[in-house]
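FAQ: What does a ligand-bound record look like?

Like this one, built around FE2/S2 (inorganic) cluster:
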Amino acid sequence: MPTRRPAASRRTVLRGAVLTPVAGLGLAACGGADDAAAPLNGPVELGPESEVAKDGAKLYRDHNVVVSRSEEGTLKAYDTLCTHAGCPINKLEGTKLICPCHGSEFDATTGKVLREPAVAPLKALAIEVKNGTMVAKPQA
Ligand code: FES
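The answer part, i.e. the structure of the complex:
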């Protein structure tokens, strides 16, 4: 008497077919440290000081730097490589930075984490103005 093997249901087969490409996309979208841009390793000219409004911030994506200005006019700069897995942060809403990889949020005026999964603050940079142009560099 032949034994019956349980046949794979149509649902099981379809589930496998659907999950495989989704898992692949997840890895590609996550990026992480392997795709991370290099941290700032020397002085970089950002642009005119007038680009950053009081109580505001401006994201310089090409250099992975955000600059904010207090109400009193003091400038602050932070490296915008996410402290979670190193993705370059590409979105600034007001003074809130939002990482595209896993949704961490940071305060552009303090570098502090507003939303996990990141737990460490952004790395502070030195910033000075030379002939009206902002120059950011790693802190000594
Ligand atoms: S790299 Fe994961 S939240 Fe930014």
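Follow-up question: can I read anything off the structure? Yes, for example: The pocket of FE2/S2 (inorganic) cluster is lined by residues 82, 84-85, 87, 99, 101-104, 117-118 (CB under 6 Å).
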